[in-house]
Amino acid sequence: MIANLERQEAELNDEKARLESDIENGAGDVSELRCRIAELEKQLETTGQKLADKRDKLKTADRKLADLQKELDSLSEKRDNAQKNFHEFTEKNQEQVRMRLTDAVFARMVVDVRSLLDAMPPEQKDDIDGDFLIAIAEQPNEILKCAMYLFFGYLDGASQFAQSCGGGGTSSDLPWGRNPDEDDRRFAYRCMMQAHKMLKPSQPKRGMGGRR
Fold first, then answer.
1. What tens digit of pLDDT does each residue of 23-44 get?
2. In angstroms, what CA-CA distances link 178 with 42, 153, 184?
3. What is the pTM of this model?
């Protein structure tokens, strides 16, 4: 509509310019030419008003469109954030469920292994190559707590705890920590193995006189 009005305005201005040129050149009846120019000016005024109205409405529409686009962008961002939060929430729930299931299975395993070991005769127990299995049946809470210290990087705390339980602990200068490419499960496993090792009673060092 604006393009049509602009074209109409241009045609009216062209015609008016031709008529004014005719008056200057003395071509045609001056009175009729002036009347026609007056009509053209009225049409130009009307066309100009229509153009101004359409342009104002277009600006208003553009502003509304910009506001709607902002709302759409905001809704899209909220949707993306909601999806991200949902995935994170789902992953956390899955991890919590997995940990609860693991705890339940681990607790049951400790009870079963302990019962199995208690029922075994000594000679059969000696044939079992399962030092950690026996330790986890006898000291499940101690190994878990010591491993927890190690998992969170508290090597001194783990060593002190192990020594308080009769274990040898470990030297505080021993390198310990998670490897850059190590995931939680692998590191947790290492912590359990290290805790088992630290809770073993320390072996007395033999002096020179003890050699044969």
1. 887 777 778 888 888 888 888 8
2. 86, 9, 9
3. 0.43
